[in-house]
Amino acid sequence: MALILKCMNFDINKIRADFPILSRKVNNLPLVYFDNGATTQKPQAVIDKIVEIYTKYNSNIHRGVHYLSNYTSEAYENSRKVVQSFINAKYSHEVVFTSGATGSINSIANSMCQNYIKPDDEIIISELEHHSNIVSWQVQFSGKGVNLKVLPVNDFGELMLEKLPELISEKTKLISITHVSNTLGTINPIKEIIAIAHQHNIPVLIDGAQAVQHTKVDVQDLDCDFYVFSGHKIYAPTGIGVLYGKEKWLDKLPPYQGGGDMITSVSFEKTIFNRLPFKFEAGTTNYVGAIALATAIEYVQNIGIENIETYEKQLLEYATQKLSSIPELIIYGKAKNKASMISFLIDTIHHYDTGMILDKLGIAVRTGSHCTEPLMKRLGIDGTVRASMAFYNTIEEIDILYNGLERVKKMFF
Amino acid sequence: MNEIQEQIIEEFSLLEDWIDKYNYLIELGKELPQIAEKYKTDEYLIRGCQSKVWLNVEEKDGRLHFTADSDAIITKGIISLLIKALTGRTPDEIINTELYFIDKIGLKENLSPTRSNGLVSMVKQMKLYAIAYREKLKS
User: Fold this and answer.
1) What was the ipTM of the complex prediction?
2) What is the assigned CATH class of domain B2-138?
3) Among partner residues A27, A368, A412, which is closest to B50 by beta-carbon distance?
4) Domain limits of chain B?
5) Catalytic residue status for B49
């Protein structure tokens, strides 16, 4: 079966050697890391970059006249260009650095509720959303009478696109949808959704937290108005993320936070905000994170996102086939178009029990509701076991998972 | 009080590896007298992100008797041990008991607040019940 991996230019052993944590043991067994949907491991190049910045160049950006500050400022702005090129944004000032996808959504939610979304308005989300794309809006809408409309999913975990037109009304101010479901792996037809929304002059925000690490994202081709993602899910450190917004939208929206670096002039009477993107980057940003994010993206680009996608598709195919051969195993999320993750339960065995035993076997999976309680309700369950794969995972590791699940079965049946 | 904890530690010392320990927990979980169905409601629910725990207490002759249940079997197994250690005791005994056996039998990870399986909250709730009943029995 390993022969199916016919990806050219893809040396899995070399790739694994780039990620030091992958060679460690857990409970005296080799670590099998299948919790990439929660966070990904970091290649040595990213770890080295963080050490290099703190060892040789650390200095606050945009403020100093000295050598170090100029160096980090340039590296920071260069990172913005790396992100711009990675998602094919038209301008680098359309790339705003944030703390992560959640920070990005909260920022837009707050800004939009200042001067764009008014009481009685509506926004459309989907049943697949992570809590960050539900609660961020609820926090801003609290007491304002703004409503969330929800696009439902079918039994395969695919969005029921045919229901979208009936949810759209004159009150609809935004459609905010995930690119890839963090629980089921469903890849949503966002290009179609964006096209439908734009026919009604409705902007679209795409939550790409589970997408950019798996597939090519071209924000101009998609024509999305906003695209957000987290660095730590694409092999970069935690605490750094991206908010892409079309220039016209970022110009129109007021800033989320006030502080240093985001102003042109300040007096006690009136403050003039700085130009893009600085208007949205108040205070000292996570510049080390941003610089290391660029290193991570370059690492991904070096391997090739298309190669990653091809390889991960093969992993998914093999894992689906292998896990489906366990008769008691139910896979949740059977969308035709899926990213490399599988959510499942073994008969009535609780996800926590399965996860605990797998942990003892050195296998890291995620269990629970995956911050998608409304989706769990739709599926009629309260949680799943989720194995989410990255391009450094192997067919052999899937076999180890399979054997682990057989062990779980023996213990609980 | 500690006799029961010592007894549990001894039982577990006979189990050689984690598989035996967990198999034993699973057996205990299956045997745990389940909480009466009427108590399996939100009112008695202790929420953990991972697994749910229901807990009820009844007082008889100054002693507290706990029954509990969980949707996860390993959690149930540990509940069974916690109940064994604390049930049928006076409020004062419950308040003053330090549950050291979990650590000794190598199941500490299950009682870590980061696990959010409801067990830490359950122990806390048992102690809170004991405090409440101590006050109630005084009056």
Assistant:
1) 0.89
2) alpha beta
3) A368
4) 2-138
5) yes
